[in-house]
């Protein structure tokens, strides 16, 4: 079995467990307590998605240059309880970065919405790298944006891979960004 198939097979028991839960702050806390950085699930998924990026099957399509890439790993299907699996690579050392209120270099991605929410595994590649979730900055661990939420993905502190699971595969880029 290749690493892509291994990642999918590793995801299925997790998706079976969370299939009827609603993403949001409460679920995010639960995910970080039960499946945080020290858990076997986090370690396995992080190892496999890093391998996927290195092997070129994950986060291999440039969205806006080599420091902002993504790819759909798997479309929704019955075996994954209608969740899709996607990976994004973002690196805040990109020349298009900006300074945030704390003087950190931040790379901002495409504004988008989550009709049914999202479960997002955050895998920093650089020590101290973080992804901005709806509850604040997150290093190794999880974010779980609520159904109906909208945001810019942002990273600071270096490179991050986000492995995310979308209920029904739903994500929308059709919203106007706030001015």
From TrEMBL:
It comes from the Bacteria. InterPro entries: PnbB. This is DUF4863 domain-containing protein. It comes from Bradyrhizobium japonicum.
């Amino acid at each position: 079995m290749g690493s892509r198939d291994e990642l999918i097979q590793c995801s299925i028991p997790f998706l079976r467990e969370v299939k009827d839960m609603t993403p949001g702050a409460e679920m995010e806390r639960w995910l970080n307590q039960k499946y945080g950085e020290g858990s076997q699930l986090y370690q396995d998924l992080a190892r496999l998605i890093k391998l996927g990026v290195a092997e070129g099957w994950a986060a291999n399509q440039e969205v806006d240059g080599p420091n902002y890439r993504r790819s759909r790993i798997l479309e929704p299907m019955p075996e994954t309880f209608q969740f899709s699996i996607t990976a994004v690579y973002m690196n805040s050392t990109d020349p298009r970065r900006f300074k945030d209120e704390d003087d950190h270099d931040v790379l901002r991605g495409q504004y988008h919405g989550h009709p049914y929410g999202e479960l997002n595994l955050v895998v920093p590649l650089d020590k101290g790298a973080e992804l901005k979730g709806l509850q604040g900055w997150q290093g190794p661990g999880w974010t779980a944006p609520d159904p109906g939420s909208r945001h810019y993905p942002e990273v600071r502190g270096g490179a991050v891979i986000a492995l995310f699971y979308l209920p029904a595969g739903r994500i929308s880029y059709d919203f106007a960004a706030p001015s």
